Amino acid sequence: MVTIVDVAKHAGVAPSTVSYVLTGKRPISAQTSVRVRESIQSLGYHPHAGARALASSRTNVLALVLPLREGVQLPVVMRFVTSVVSTAREQDMDVLLMTAAQGADGLRRVAGGAGADGFLLMDVGLDDERVQVVRELDRPAVLIGHPAAAAGLTCVDLDFEAAGARCVEHLAGLGHRSIGFLGAPGVVYARNTGYAQRTLAGFSTAAMRRGVVSTALPAEPRYASVHAVVRTLLRELPQMSALVVHNEAVLGWVVECLRAEGRRVPDDVTLMAICPDELAERMRLTCVRLPADVLGRCAVELLVAKLNGQQTPALTLLPPELSSRTGRAFPSGIPGKLIP
Amino acid sequence: MVTIVDVAKHAGVAPSTVSYVLTGKRPISAQTSVRVRESIQSLGYHPHAGARALASSRTNVLALVLPLREGVQLPVVMRFVTSVVSTAREQDMDVLLMTAAQGADGLRRVAGGAGADGFLLMDVGLDDERVQVVRELDRPAVLIGHPAAAAGLTCVDLDFEAAGARCVEHLAGLGHRSIGFLGAPGVVYARNTGYAQRTLAGFSTAAMRRGVVSTALPAEPRYASVHAVVRTLLRELPQMSALVVHNEAVLGWVVECLRAEGRRVPDDVTLMAICPDELAERMRLTCVRLPADVLGRCAVELLVAKLNGQQTPALTLLPPELSSRTGRAFPSGIPGKLIP
DNA sequence: CTGAAAGCGCTAACAA
DNA sequence: TTGTTAGCGCTTTCAG
Question: Nearest protein residue to C2's C1' (by CA)?
């Protein structure tokens, strides 16, 4: 194994000098720096992560805790993960993967054993035991999403309330006076971190403010449920000319259900969604983006800032962004002309 | 911070004794063991991962390299990841997450810097630069899937050839004499690790053997493509009474396309798939399972065996398993009675 | 069955 | 601008 001493000898300098070249923690003359770097190259030296962690009490590892339970939006999680890993690498950090199943003990073990410098927790529930644990840990953490009991924690999230409102503004601006809202499954409005509630609140408030008639209903991820919800919406809002969908899983079915009820998209009903941009792109739908990649980057950068002892805002809300498209949607991606 | 010395003092033993209690690498009297464990508990001691790695040259970390590029089957990846993490924890290991994007340099860095004891590589391509790198590394690796140039490597995979054959056997056993095959997108048959080709080969060979008429076609993840493929299949095989789908993304559309061509499922055409069991379950379809969880567990166990210096088979092929269901499929999960 | 002590490879004072 | 050196916390020989 190549050690820092080997490199030092090869370059004719002291081990500490090699260390300082690598960390940049003190000025090194250009010549020395170059010579050392060359030695590192030609010897194929890689600093021993454990030794480094031991001596510096910095692991350069961040722990990412994912909610890999059922019902989670996989595409969103994956984009987030990719973004976290690449941003971490930019900061010369590696990513330790944990699952929510490892629970509070897992956090304590990794923090206590110096397995990571900090934590990124995704999808923390309202009454999650980990919230308390994270507070007691001596390591910084960033939560994605913001549970109600988030005081004293650093959270980053899409501004879902603004996102809900943004939909109404957009549609009202187009002249719509009667707008439906098809939301997440009922349980989500209970169990979750509250993003669903916040979206709905933003939507409803904006509708009031703009004098728009609106009705909101949750939808289960079954066709029958979606169909029933669409029917109910049309009964409650006979003049409904626009529909906001905050439920990725059923988005593809909504167009078919509307059609089944004699409404064409976008001729009779303007459809828009709150979802990842790729999904909306595939369906040619206008949407408010769910920016998983920005969230990931942002979360890592906040964590790194905390690691460097900087102050960070308790809550970072990403402003919603609108992606405008024709709205000539395909049901499940099916071109209209192929429908019998 | 609580160190091993603190624990040793608290328990009235030598530090080495504490270490041996933890690692079990030499016999310890029951009394001592209990006393030490109590001290560990009451002090909340967690061994320092870096120090341990430095002293033992074992990190107890395995690196998982994921293909987070577009076009990958997210549900499969996620089940695999969950399984890897939990199996790793059973073996007292943590998981370092890497992406294929980190490439060969990433592998060299982590291996050289003692960031992990071994590697799990998912979805390695035929001409992947990492195959060569993995060979040169001094750390063991397990590949999920098996590239042609896999000699000398340890691979684990579903036996896709047997899976393709299993479909034919099942259908031929039911009396079908004319069977279609709707495969992955065309590019997959070129670029990938070969699982697609192997499935097809298994299917075709079995069809020959059983004297079954068959035709196979690739399908792109667009409705129009699927529809075209279905039409072509029906033209080539006018008597087609069964269809095997090896393409998760379009599975939902196939039923609709068949219907559009006047064929009902399962009355006129028996549909079966090679896909994760949950998907087939949701669609009420018979399938050959894509056992991501078993693969994950198996891969970790193989890696751990290698770490312990045990010999491992070069190739572990999991036998395909059939999940039988009614086959009364929902197109995109839509109950038939709701179709106009 | 248990202790003492020598490193593992690196960083960060302290010196120059 | 650079060198010297004392640990970081643990494992593992070597002794007992």
Answer: B17
